[in-house]
Amino acid sequence: MSLLSQNLYAASTIAAPEEIVIVGINDQAVKSGFLKKSKDYKVNPGPLSLSLRYQAYFEDNLNRHDIVKSDILRLDIPQIQDNQRYVLKLVNPPQDHDDAKKYAEQPKIALFDQNNQQVVQESRISNQPKNSILGGLFNDSVDLTQVQSTPTNYSSKETRQNQNSKASTSYQTSPIPHTDTLSVDQNMIQLWQKASKAERQKFMTWLAEQ
User: Where are the domains of the chain?
Assistant: First the structure.
């Protein structure tokens, strides 16, 4: 009977724009990718706690850039309804760099339901630390409805075998021959120079989370 009851419920979705970074859901740390302007999170219905931060990228005419970000806020949601779509929004978002730096000191983030009705709002800074990272770099959707943490245990024999294998591999490594190809850092410089402002923003926003 309990299994049947669980199957009657469908996961809900929380959408976050690029200025709002979700770093944790129910104390489960998550990591956002940088290839999408918004990100969807699938969650189970019921009470929910979100750990959030405000983050914005600015670039001037001299190609100088700055990433403004707040400390982590905790948004406690009394009830997520079944099979609904919610959206996180900034309340009175800043319009320029100077305003953003002030806004980051005490950002206001609210959750709206699919009827655009405000569910809850928060502006208090949380003391919750950012822990381990969960999620993919290139994903635009994270499913947290069935996340399970299963540590992998290895026997001491397996551990010694793995260590010996790694050690033998390291001794067999030969020097990389010199070629005319660009190094990794040179490639990154070229890619940065060719990138558009939007592409630079996505990368720098992602980099600030690392």
Answer: 2-154+181-209
